[in-house]
Target: Nickel import system ATP-binding protein NikD
Amino acid sequence: MPDLLLKVSGVSVTIPTGQGTVHAVDDATFSINKHEIFSLIGESGSGKSILGQAIMRLLPPNAVFSGKVELDGTEISALSEKEMQKVRGKTVASIAQNPYLAMNPGIRVGTQIAEPMQAHLGMSKEDSKARTFRALKYFDIVPPEVREREYPFQYSGGMLQRAMVAMGTAADPELIIADEPTKGIDVLKKRNIAAIFHKVASDGCAFLLITHDVGFARAMSDRIAVNYCGQIIEIAGKDVFFKEPLHPYSQALLDAVPERGMHPIPGLSPSMIEVPEGCRFHPRCPYKMDRCLKNPPVVDMNGRCVRCWMYA
Ligand SMILES: Nc1ncnc2c1ncn2[C@@H]1O[C@H](COP(=O)(O)OP(=O)(O)OP(=O)(O)O)[C@@H](O)[C@H]1O
Ligand code: NI
Model:
């Protein structure tokens, strides 16, 4: 048995708004093993980021959470906010999407990297400084003694991105949640990010990658989960998934990537407030049957899961 790290069981999140209740996440169930790179893909607005926020306990204040999240045997969804603060950054860290927003422009980069080590690992200033030097060198931000003292505006975009990863990994977390790490960056920088993540992963850290960049997910992941309209509709090993996606939405999603002819998915993305009854994909599905108006079961085929009547 692989070593279980994160277990998410029946997690749902709703957010009340002036227009109605947003069903952002519905019944999310999956797990991530130690050292594993697990990607959550799916179209914009399908609830990927909210699921990441639910795990980190960083949801919008009015969001309503239910379900259970366990990390390394601890039920983190039941911790007090104070206890959760100790977990955040230490056991599970997130890497923000936009380094320009995530870094404090008025504080030296070295100080920002050292801070989580002092806060979460109780390291002395000297030790954290030595580790920061190592981290800067590790991520090719050189010379460290100069770069450490610089402010974010003195960094290039790529360097800032690497500094963000250095910040996220400074306290040696076991799991990193990276939401859209390739958003708005060019192919070359994307390769850099992939290389950095692989490097961190090979040192034993697991990843939850949240992305609608199917190519990036393919290059990075051990396993893939597909999100549609707030629900995970398929979970599979990367190779089998790309060879033979089972859920009709997964098939449509892969047909929509440039390498496969960019065939658009027919129909419109559903509302997250008035979600379709039964299978949420049925209004757009070419294989629709009568029973698709009822909630489909999650069919488990030796660890490969698909939420679809065709396989029930
Ligand atoms: N603070 C909020 N208040 C109300 N609704 C929200 C809030 N944040 C997100 N939502 C809604 O929750 C749903 C899921 O949003 P989420 O950001 O998780 O999607 P996503 O899959 O990450 O999309 P993207 O790929 O564009 O980042 C959307 O319908 C969104 O409008
Ligand atoms: Ni998002």
